[in-house]
What we know:
The chain has 3 helices and 4 strands, in the order H-E-E-H-H-E-E. The chain is of the alpha+beta class. The chain has one domain. The protein has a 4-stranded antiparallel sheet, covered by helices on one side. The radius of gyration is 16 Å and the shape is globular.
Amino acid sequence: MRLDLATAGLHVAPPAPLNDEDQGGVVVYINDDAQVVVDWLPHARLDRAALDLVEAARTDDEAVIRYEVVRSAMDTALGTILTGFRYATHQPQFGFGHIVLQTTTAPES
């Protein structure tokens, strides 16, 4: 899946936890329910700025708006790419990202 996403031209972040040097991009990880999740992380700079402003109750600030626009657009794009590459997905109950469903294929006879 990581190779498919990279083939689509997306920067796929390393599987290890991201640090400040990482520039975000597509992340693929296993959640607490042992499900494969594909999500998008903006650059750490935008992520930190938006978080700081939300905590200060300044949700109408430009950084927060940019963060939300990027997250929404990339979530839609990831869903379209995953579907186009024939991955079955569903949205998590809360937030962004796509849970990739395990598919079972019957052997051909």
